[in-house]
Amino acid sequence: MKYLTIDTTTKVTAVALGEDRRLVGEGFLNTTKTHSERIIPMLDQLLTAADWTLQELDMIGVVRGPGSFTGIRIGIATAQGLAQVLKLPLISVVSLDALAWAGKGRMEDVVPILDARKNEWYTARYNWTRGAEKADCLTPPQAMPIDKWLEYLKGLDRSICFVGDAAEKAKGRIEEVLGERAVILPEYISLPRGAYAVSAVWQRWQETGEGEQVEPYYIRFSEAEVNWAKKEEARRSEGHE
Questions:
Q1: The CATH classification of domain 96-190, taken from the options 3.30.70.1350, 2.30.110.10, 3.10.20.310, 3.30.420.40
Q2: How far apart (Å, rounded) are the C-alpha atoms in residues 22 and 110?
Q3: pLDDT (tens digit, 9 = 90+) per residue, 84-110?
Q4: How far apart, in whole angstroms, are the C-alpha atoms of residue 12 and residue 33?
C-alpha cells in the first residue's frame, strides 16, 4: 500500500511517502514561509524524487492536531482535497502520538511538548515497552501550564525524554526542575518528521483498515473563539439588563 502523509501542526512542514510500514521519502522544511506556500511544491518534489504519481497512492494520512490552529486547518484541507479528488481513504493521527515515535526504543518515558502559547504546552506521556510496535499512552493529550506539568513529571521520580518544538527552547527550564532525569533530544530528532507520521498512520491503518471523517483536534478553543464567546456572553448580559 502506497500513501502520503501531511503534518503541518507546527512551524515545520513535513510530508512523506510510505509503502506499508516502510518510509520511502520525506520532506522537511522549518522556514519562515507559510505552509500554504511550501506544501504543494514539497509534495511535487517528493513524488518526482520517488518516481511516484498521485494516481499510485492508496491512502492519504494527515496529522490533525493539537498544534497551530492555522496549520492544522491547512493540513487537513489539503489532505481532504487530495483524498476527494483521488477518491482515496483518509486516515488521521494525533500530533503527540506521532511524536512519540521519536522516542521508540528508549527506556525513559517519552513526553512530547508543543508550544501552546499562554505559558502552556500541548503534551502527553508515553512509554515504549521493549519490543512493542506501539507506545503505551500513560497520560492522554492535554494543554497544561508549563510549571504544573514539570512539577508533575518531577514527582514521578523517573527519567523523562522530551521531544517536540518546545523541547530545545525550554531546555534550561526543564533541566532546572528535573536535573539529570531530563533527556532532551536534538532538534533533528525532536521536531515533527514525516517518518513519525508514516509510522503513526500505518499503525492507525492496521487498527482500522478503513478511512474516516477527519476533524481538527484543537484540545482548547482558539483565541478568536474565546473572544467571540466573551462578546456573546457580554451581549446576552446586556440584553437581560
A1: 3.30.420.40
A2: 23
A3: 999 999 999 999 999 999 999 999 999
A4: 10
